[in-house]
Write a structure and sequence with these properties.
nine-stranded mixed sheet; BirA Bifunctional Protein, domain 2; alpha+beta; Rossmann fold; 409 residues; 30% helix; 12 helices
Length: 409
């Protein structure tokens, strides 16, 4: 993609209201743009990152047998009343009326919808187990949206729902999901901690939160550096000593990047979701649900991977693999080499943002650091027939030729 034609207008400074690192850098790098409180436009760079994260999640959900579906955002009042969550959901539902004066909600989650859906198709034990997931817009009526993408009112979420004949099978699959989540975070180059958590408005018998340590996180995590014990401060209260080894603990901030629940029969009971076992006796279906917010995960990556100059995207989620900068572009020989490098990389299927803009060298270099594409390629009079290659997370650069560069792919 030629940068001169790309919808990209970087900012030298972030707006005053931007507080967290990810909020500032994603705004300055033209990845996102705010429409209103808690509601964001994803711009071309931002959407490319978002899609990379989405594909990682989709691949890992498919590996554990998840089947992708899509469920409606608009949900009728009656199903929320049936579970008692029309009035009790926290944060409160976004509610509206249609032209027939019928009450509807914008879905923050889909337990009611998915349970009603599968109820029509589950009959016997032979239909179980299975898992369905979607990657879809959610709406949370937050009182205060903060931190850019860290707490929003509209966002994309992956929610997986699993259905089982008994607790043992739910427990087995639940562990598979926990391992899949760990793989997702590793592929995003994040180190996530899994902690037992409250089930909250979703409900169920057991729950885990995945948290990434970051200064901007709203959760406070107690950590024993001696034995490795960890827990959330809100769950165990303020402590100075570890409950396991009695050594001193430290407190770190963390960002929640995923939540899993053993729902058990909470929704099955309400909607009479049952099946006939081998003895032709009715049994309630055991359920699990598992969520990851994509925008928050994207922001968390920035909170962890950045320096004083900008973002440092892991290659797995970067908007492009290469950022090609042509300097001295009025020199025909230099421009010819840069064009050739670009065309060859595109031909072999690489993702390249080609900065062909007629602007100062300083602005090009600053923009490259801010945007954070992992591999910077510079071609100038100084490099001659070679290409200067610099990793965004390294200080030193090396010189190579096009043939060797293509081998590195």
């Amino acid at each position: 993609m030629y940068q001169s034609q790309f919808f990209l207008k970087t900012l030298r400074q972030a707006p005053k209201e931007a507080e967290t690192i990810s909020h500032k850098l994603l705004l300055r790098g033209f990845f996102i743009e705010q429409l209103t409180s808690g509601v964001w436009n994803f711009l071309p760079l931002g959407l490319r990152v978002h899609k990379k994260i989405e594909n990682i999640i989709r691949e890992e959900m498919n590996k554990i047998g998840g089947q992708e579906i899509y469920l409606p955002v608009l949900q009728p009042k009656e199903i929320w009343q049936k579970t008692g969550r029309w009035e009790k959901m926290e944060p409160p539902l976004f509610k509206l009326k249609d032209r027939h004066n019928k009450d509807l909600a914008l879905g923050p989650t889909h337990e009611e919808v998915i349970t009603l859906l599968v109820k029509k198709y589950i009959q016997s034990y032979k239909d179980l187990p299975f898992a369905l997931y979607q990657i879809q817009a959610k709406f949370r009526n937050e009182m205060r949206s903060t931190g850019g993408l860290l707490r929003t009112r509209e966002f994309m979420m992956k929610d997986l729902y699993s259905f089982h004949p008994d607790k043992k099978d739910l427990d087995r699959y639940y562990q598979k999901v926990l391992e899949a989540y760990k793989r997702i975070y590793r592929r995003c180059e994040l180190s996530a901690i899994a902690l037992e958590a409250e089930t909250g408005p979703i409900g169920g018998s057991e729950s885990h939160e995945f948290l990434v340590l970051a200064n901007s996180g709203e959760d406070r995590i107690l950590i024993c550096q001696k034995c490795g014990w960890k827990n959330k401060e809100e769950k165990v209260g303020k402590r100075e000593k570890c409950p396991k080894c009695n050594k001193e603990i430290i407190i770190k901030n963390g960002i929640e990047v995923g939540h899993t629940f053993k729902l058990g029969t909470k929704y099955s009971q309400v909607f009479d979701l049952n099946y006939l076992d081998k003895d032709s006796k009715k049994q309630l279906v055991q359920m699990g649900c598992y969520g990851i917010g994509l925008g928050r995960l994207m922001a968390t990556i920035v909170e962890v991977h950045h320096d004083e100059n900008g973002i440092i995207w892991p290659e797995s989620v970067a908007p492009f693999k290469y950022h090609l900068l042509v300097l001295d572009q009025k020199e025909k020989k230099v421009k010819k080499i840069a064009d050739e490098v670009y065309e060859k990389l595109i031909k072999v299927g690489e993702e390249v943002l080609y900065d062909d803009r007629d602007i100062s060298v300083g602005i090009k270099l600053k923009d490259a650091d801010l945007i954070g594409i992992p591999n910077r390629l510079v071609i100038s009079k100084k490099t001659g027939s070679k290409i200067e290659v610099k990793k965004r997370n390294k200080r030193k650069s090396t010189l190579t030729n096009l043939k060797n560069l293509l081998k590195l792919k």
